[in-house]
Design a protein that fits this description.
Layout: H1 3-42, H2 48-85
Helix pairs in contact: 1-2
Length: 86
């Protein structure tokens, strides 16, 4: 295996990692900003108000996005296995 092939595998691994992680992080960011804005407007400073909705929405987004994540990982694994076999 030469350097170009290794760099391509690493580049693809970073892209797959971003494809899997970014949607959940963006959803978490939007929910966190929304809750923070709500807390600032109403001056409610309850600590559990930030965690409970965010945890529920992130878990539900993981359930919704699980097929996409699995498909992305399977495609990447198949590419790596094809390189090993070839």
């Amino acid at each position: 295996m030469d350097e170009a092939a290794l760099l391509e595998i690493v580049r693809n691994a970073v892209i797959v990692t971003l494809k899997i992680g970014v949607p959940v992080m963006l959803i978490s960011l939007v929910v966190g900003l929304t809750i923070s804005l709500f807390q600032a407007l109403t001056q409610i400073q309850e600590a559990t108000l930030t965690f409970v909705p965010k945890i529920l929405i992130v878990f539900s987004s993981l359930l919704v996005l699980a097929p996409f994540m699995l498909h992305t990982l399977v495609d990447f694994t198949e590419q790596i296995m094809a390189r090993i076999g070839g």
